[in-house]
Request: fold
Amino acid sequence: MPLDVETGKTMLQLVTSRYDDRHWRKKIEKTLGLPQSGVGDPAQQQIFMYLKIGLKGYKSRRADPDSWIIGGYATKEIIDRAKFQPQLVGPNVTKDDVAFLGSDPGKEIDEAWWDEMLVSWFDVPEEEKPAEEEGGEASD
Reply:
């Protein structure tokens, strides 16, 4: 089940506000490496993809893992561009959609919250799957 609107907003705030904190840099890189299908809101999904593409470091075609330019001026420039020119993020993205970027989500957002967010990013409802599997096994 993808992130809901509030969790998605908090995740984007974390990515765009704590990038200069060494403690959070690896976690932000890991978040940017996740598939965009984990973000439920379409506007937030466009923002996430904009950040993911904008912060992808140069790599050769032979490089295996993606690398990211997290921290410093380049990251701030990507965030500021999104805030002041939301049409760069997506055609339907408004200034209201990107207004929260760069603001810290608060002290309650810690590693435990981040771990829970990762779980919900990949959480797939299992209620339907067992019923289908049981039905398939019964017919065999």
